Every structure is written in C-alpha cells, then in structure tokens.
Amino acid sequence: MKLKPIKSEQDYEAALERLALIFDALPGTEDSDELEILGMLIEKYEKEHFPMDLPNPIEAIKFRMEQMATNKMI
Fold first, then answer.
1. Cβ–Cβ under 8 Å, residues 15 and 41
2. What is the distance between the alpha carbons of residues 44 and 5, in angstroms, rounded to a whole number?
3. Which of 13, 25, 54, 62 could form an S-S bond across to 31 if both were Cys, CB 3.0 to 4.6 Å?
4. pLDDT under 50 in the chain at which residues?
5. pTM of the model
6. Terminal CA-to-CA distance of the chain, rounded, Å?
7. 5 φ/ψ sector (left φ>0, alpha ψ -120 to 50, else beta)
C-alpha cells in the first residue's frame, strides 16, 4: 500500500483493512515499518474524527466499583 494521509472515511476503511493484513509483520521488515506508520496515521484520523472526552472521575470510580462487584458474583 502506498502510504498517504487519511482524508476520508474511505481512506480510513482502506487503512484499517491494510492494517489487518500486515498486523503480524515481523520486526525489521518493510511491512513492520508500514504497520508503524499506518498506525500513526490511523490514530491521528481517529483523534480528529472520533474524539473521546475524559470520563468524570467520580463516574469512573463508580463504574469500576460496579465492575468489581459484578466480578465477585461470578
């Protein structure tokens, strides 16, 4: 795959498909270099188009407590 900036949803989908194909690339190979750069491009696109706010600290603690209580029941 020729590396280029991810500018559209179609570019993003193509990048994800390529990432899946080369995900297990051996270190030191051309594919591993492509994997690293492609990962950076995908991360940049996701930060711009799918931003995630930090959780409210109190709600995060409550959520974790609920998870712990649920796990004890299992």
1. yes
2. 9
3. 25
4. none
5. 0.70
6. 46
7. beta
